[in-house]
Amino acid sequence: MTTRLRTLLGDHPGTAALKSGAIKSDSVAFDFVDYSPAHKGFKPMVREAAFDVSELAIVTYLMAKSFGKPMVLLPDVVVARSQHGYALYNAKHRTLKPADLNGKRVGIRSFTTTTGAWLRGILANDYGVDLDSIDWVTFEDAHVAEFEDTTKRAPAGKQVVQMLIDGELDAVLGEKVEHPDLKPLFADTAAEEKAWFAKHKVAPINHMVVVSQKLSDTNPDAVREVHRLLDASAAAVPAAPRFNTEEMRRSLQLIIHYCTQQKLIPRAFAVDELFDDVTRAVVRRVG
User: Fold this and answer.
1) N or C: which terminal CB in the chain sees fewer CB atoms within 10 Å?
2) Is 31 exposed, middle or buried (0-12, 13-18, 19+ CB in 10 A)?
3) Is the pLDDT of residue 286 over 70?
C-alpha cells in the first residue's frame, strides 16, 4: 500500500530528481503543493501543520520547536550557502563596513529569517557589532505566530531594497541585487567567507526537511523512506548540499547559539533534541 504525502519542497538541485519523478518509491508518493518561492509555504506548515513533509528554514524550525509545534527534523539539507554576500549598503551616501553598523538603520524582510540570523551572528561575534544598538526595520512578521516581534515595521507599500536605494536605510541584510549604488557590506566577500569558514569550520545551513510528528509516530517506515529518497535525489546532483553528520552538527550548533543570543529561542537546544527516536536513528546512518 502506498502512503500519499502532502509535500512542500522547493526547486533545488538536490530535490530535482525527486520532484521530476526520476527517483520513485513503491511505498510513498508525494503530492507536491505549489508555493513559489517555497518559503511562502512555511507559515502554513508551522501555523496549521499543513504538510506531511516540508522544506523549512532552520531558524523557523528552531522557533517552531520552542513553541511545541508538532514536527520533527530530518537530516536532509536542501539549501546551504555562505551568507556574507547577502548584506548590502548604499555607496552613494557613504562607505560602510561591518563594524560601522552600530546605531544604524538596517532593513530585513523579517527579523526571523535564517539568513538574517546567520548574518547577525557573524556581525556580533566576528565583527563586534552591538545588535541592540541597531534600528531594525522589517517588512513581514515571523512564520511562527507566537513570536513577539519588537522591531519597527516599514511603512505599508515600502520595499526593502528600494528603501536602501532611496537612502531610507543604511544597510540591508538578506538581499543580493545588482545595482550601481549598492555594494557588499563585506568588501571582499569571497575572502571574508573563506576566513570565516577557516575559523568556524561551518557551512551555514538555510533549509532542511521536516516531517509532521503524526507521520513519525504513526508511520516511521514512511519517514525512513522519505529520507532515503531525499538522500538519493541529493546524491544524483553534484551541486546539491552534502553534509556528513559532524558537519551538520557543527552548523546546527552554531545557528542554535546565534538564535539563543538573538532571543529568537528561549534556550539553546542540544542538536539531538531536534530529532525524535525515528529520525535520530536516521542521523546515525548519515555518512
Assistant:
1) N
2) exposed
3) no
d(CA 89, CA 96) in angstroms, rounded, equals 7
Residue 174 φ/ψ, nearest 5 degrees: 90, 10
Tell me how many helices (H) and strands (E) the chain has.
Answer: 10, 11
Q: Which ranges of 11-106 does DSSP label H, i.e. alpha helix? A: 16-20, 42-48, 58-66
**Cβ-based neighbours of 267, under 8 Å, separated by 6 or more:** 66, 260
**Polymer length of the chain:** 287
d(CA 147, CA 143): 9
Q: Return all residues near 177 (Cβ < 8 A) that are at least 6 apart.
A: 88, 161
Do strands 205-212 and 53-57 pair parallel, antiparallel, or not at all (unpaired)? antiparallel
- Please state the pTM of the whole predicted model: 0.96
Give CA angle at 190 (189, 194), nearest 5°.
Answer: 115
Quick one: cell of 56? Answer: 523549512
**How many angstroms separate the CA atoms of 172 and 164, rounded?**
7
In the three-class reduction of DSSP (H, G, I as helix; E, B as strand; rest coil), residue 90 is classed as strand
What residue type is assigned to position 173 of the chain? L
| Number of CB atoms found within 10 A of residue 266's CB | 11
pLDDT, tens digit, for every residue of 80-96?
999 999 999 999 998 99
Split at pLDDT 50, 70, 90, the class of 287 is low
Question: Of 85, 255, 257, whose CA–CA distance to 172 is shortest?
Answer: 85
